C-alpha cells in the first residue's frame, strides 16, 4: 500500500504491524522545496517507540521531486508510537519538516508448542479436504460414464429406427412384388380365355 505525503503538510502515519517489511510505502512530495531552494536531497530520521536514539532511513529518490520510504522490518520492530522528521539538503543549508508520529500495531508471534487440539483439528481439516477432492473425482467419473451410456443409448435407438425403416421397406417391396405377380398372372389367364378366382388362398381357373 502507498501513502502519499507532502512535506509542507506532514501527518501521523500508520506504517504497519510489528515485524512487517517491504509491503508498506510512503511517498514524500518535496517539489515545493525544490522550487524554493533548488536541487537537493531528501533524507529522513525516525525515532522508534520507547527508544531515545534516532537513526536515518533510506529513501529512494524517484527523479520527479518525490522520494519513497519502503518500510523495513527494522522500522516496525517496536510496537507503539514513534516519531519521524524529513530533512531536505539543497546546495546550501537544510530544511526540516515538523516532527510527525509513526505508529506500529501489535502482532502475534508463535513462541510455544502446537497444542494437540490444533494438530487434531488440522488433521481433520486435511481429511475433509481430501474427501472432498475424492468425491469430486468420483462425480466427474460418474458424469463421464453417464455421458457414455447416453451416447450408447442414442446409437442403439438410431440402429433400431434404421432396422424398422428397413423392415417397412421390405414389406412394401414384398407387397409390390405380389401385386405385380397377380397382375401378370391375370393377364396370362385372360389371354387364354380363362377366369381366375382366388378362394381361401386357392387359385381356381374356370372356362
What attributes does this structure have?
207 residues; alpha+beta; Immunoglobulin-like; four-stranded mixed beta sheet; 12 strands; 30% strand
Describe this protein's structure.
With 207 residues, this protein is α+β, with helices and mostly antiparallel strands. The chain has a domain at 2-105: Sandwich (Immunoglobulin-like), CATH 2.60.40. The chain contains two helices and twelve strands; from the N terminus they run βββαβββββββαββ. It has helices at residues 31-37, 116-191, and strands spanning 2-6, 13-17, 25-29, 40-47, 55-57, 60-61, 66-70, 80-90, 95-96, 100-105, 195-199, 202-206. Strands 2, 4, 5, 8, 9 and 10 form a six-stranded mixed sheet that branches. The chain has a four-stranded mixed sheet with strand order 1-3-7-6, with no helix packed on it. The radius of gyration is 49 Å and the shape is elongated. The termini are far apart.
The low-pLDDT segments are: none
**First CA to last CA: what distance?**
118 Å
Number of helices: 2
Instruction: Name the shape in a single word.
Output: elongated
Kindly provide the name of the CATH class of one domain: Mainly Beta
**DSSP, total strands:** 12
Beta strand % = 25-35%
Q: Cα-atom Rg, whole angstroms?
A: 49 Å
Task: Supply the helix-strand structural class.
Answer: alpha+beta
- What multimeric state do the chains show? single chain
Helix-strand sequence: EEEHEEEEEEEHEE
For the biggest sheet, the summary is: 6 strands, mixed
